[in-house]
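Hi R.,

As promised on Friday, here is the backbone we talked about, encoded as structure tokens. Could you run it through your design pipeline when you get a chance and send me back a sequence?
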């Protein structure tokens, strides 16, 4: 209790009378349970009906909603909203079992972990060289931060680092990686890159229902039956992530995993738990495939010979980018680094503004064109806006537009003299940012889920095998270089966080190819995932 009051020092002097209320909520959770039955559904319904709920869908259901509801009900005045947010954050921290709740400390730990991984991966010490020949560095960057959560040193649910990394660093990364892009040379790569990307999308869309059918045949208990808590609903979020990325995954969570009206607290909790497990399925299965992809980079020439593929266009792009990098290379000055920061985060600011304006316009358009007349609905006229499909496609999400606009800005700047800042380390700074995102995502992995829910990982494994098999089959048929196969796959499965990394594993100058394909994945992700989800629902036995 003493520590709780010490941590409430952020309160203004006039608000100190609130401290006993928070202490009461923490030490006597039964008070929240004795509240009127109508209070809990009200809180849950409000949180799920926010217009921009997809922006924060990665946050799990609050395990202490009763206490927070009591707090909000006690201070309904909008003028106290910021204060209530601070009190809520403190309440979350004290309900957590984590040893460390300060984001500044957690961020420092993640940076130390990344620094050690980068140092050891480039070390000449034999043990480290042998280790990284077997285990990809990127996989280690995901795995080690997950141990912080596994041993309850940190609680990623109470951290704002994911929001910081995805909303601030990721857009800046996309700008910096595309700053030196050569669109003419990328177009010269031909249609095979796009064909392999679309093949990867098809592998995810059709692989999901096929995996559900196969597993339901010999282990029906894993798939269960259709209903509000059906497994296919959780798998729809995996489809969103594997075709597009986080924004598409969040959209699927809202579309297919939102608790129905009148849902019990148990249903809401079960859906939240299912979503958490599906995040682990998403990351684990995807990173196992990435391990094999990265191992294949060293054997790319042999695979190309097997496919009888012509990779001359890729080598030509690589050589041209290398010559450009060498031409503009210089030792970066403080001014160079400051300008790079201005480019990356200035573009991020514009993308946030544009994304917010466009998504708000789309939401208002949908709202304004939705019939409000109850009589027309009773007469059989649909109450759905003719523009409602825009939300289903993710176009009402500011995060979607944030990614698209930031990438567009980077491409436009590549036609200006600012592209010469590649010589000052634009792509290197972008790489630093993207690995910070990787570490933050890794911190959110629940590695214990493998032991708790092995059946879901079996579904994910079969699903991925179908995707991989289709990629190799089409790659062999059209004689596509392994580079197109690897980057086309990860542009789907990994999105903007992984596709540039895989492309850069072939050569750093090829990272922009991964960025462009990943952006295309964001555009197709929601639509493809919805088709996949409907087919998985059809493959799931009906409830009794």
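Update: got your reply. Pasting your designed sequence below so it's all in one thread:
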């Amino acid at each position: 209790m003493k520590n709780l009051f010490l941590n409430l020092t952020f309160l203004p002097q006039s608000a100190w009378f609130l401290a006993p209320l928070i202490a009461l909520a923490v030490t006597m959770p039964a008070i929240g349970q004795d509240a009127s039955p109508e209070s809990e559904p009200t809180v849950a319904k409000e949180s799920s009906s926010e217009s921009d709920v997809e922006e924060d869908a990665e946050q799990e259901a609050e395990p202490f909603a009763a206490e927070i509801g009591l707090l909000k009900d006690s201070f309904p005045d909008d003028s106290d909203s910021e204060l209530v947010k601070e009190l809520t954050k403190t309440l979350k921290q004290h309900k957590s079992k984590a040893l460390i709740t300060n984001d500044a400390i957690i961020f420092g730990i993640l940076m130390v972990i990344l620094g050690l991984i980068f140092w050891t991966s480039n070390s000449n010490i034999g043990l480290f060289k042998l280790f990284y020949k077997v285990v990809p560095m990127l996989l280690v960057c995901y795995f080690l931060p997950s141990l912080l959560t596994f041993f309850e040193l940190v609680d990623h649910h109470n951290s704002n680092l994911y929001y910081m990394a995805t909303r601030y660093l990721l857009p800046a990364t996309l700008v910096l990686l595309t700053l030196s892009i050569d669109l003419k040379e990328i177009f010269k790569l031909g249609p095979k890159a796009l064909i392999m990307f679309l093949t990867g999308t098809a592998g995810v869309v059709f692989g999901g229902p096929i995996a559900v059918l196969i597993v339901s045949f010999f282990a029906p208990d894993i798939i269960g039956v259709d209903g509000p808590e059906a497994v296919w609903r959780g798998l729809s979020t995996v489809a969103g992530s594997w075709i597009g990325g986080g924004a598409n995954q969040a959209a699927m969570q809202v579309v297919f995993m939102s608790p129905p009206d009148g849902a019990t607290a148990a249903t809401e909790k079960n859906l939240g738990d299912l979503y958490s497990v599906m995040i682990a399925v998403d990351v684990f299965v995807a990173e196992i495939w990435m391990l094999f992809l990265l191992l294949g980079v060293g054997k790319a020439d042999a695979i190309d010979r097997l496919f009888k593929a012509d990779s001359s266009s890729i080598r030509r792009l690589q050589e041209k980018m290398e010559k450009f990098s060498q031409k503009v290379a210089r030792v970066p000055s403080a001014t160079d680094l400051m300008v790079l920061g201005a480019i990356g985060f200035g573009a991020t600011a514009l993308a946030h503004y544009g994304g917010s304006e466009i998504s708000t316009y789309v939401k208002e358009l949908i709202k304004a064109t939705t019939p409000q007349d109850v009589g027309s609905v009773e007469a059989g006229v649909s109450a759905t806006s003719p523009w409602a499909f825009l939300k289903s496609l993710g176009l009402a999400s500011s995060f979607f537009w944030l990614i698209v606009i930031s990438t567009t800005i980077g491409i436009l700047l590549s036609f200006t003299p600012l592209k010469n800042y590649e010589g000052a380390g634009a792509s290197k700074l972008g790489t630093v940012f993207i690995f910070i995102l990787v570490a933050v995502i890794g911190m959110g992995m629940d590695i214990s889920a493998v032991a708790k829910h092995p059946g879901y990982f079996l579904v994910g494994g079969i699903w991925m095998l179908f995707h991989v098999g289709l990629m190799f089959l089409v790659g062999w048929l059209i004689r596509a270089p392994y580079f197109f196969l690897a980057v086309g796959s990860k542009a789907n499965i990994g999105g903007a966080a992984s596709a540039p990394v895989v492309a850069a594993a072939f050569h750093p100058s090829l990272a922009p190819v991964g960025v462009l394909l990943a952006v295309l994945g964001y555009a197709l992700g929601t639509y493809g995932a919805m088709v996949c989800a409907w087919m998985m629902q059809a493959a799931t036995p009906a409830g009794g």
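One thing I noticed while checking it: Residues 1-64, 73-81, 374-382 have pLDDT under 50 and may be disordered.

Thanks again,
M.
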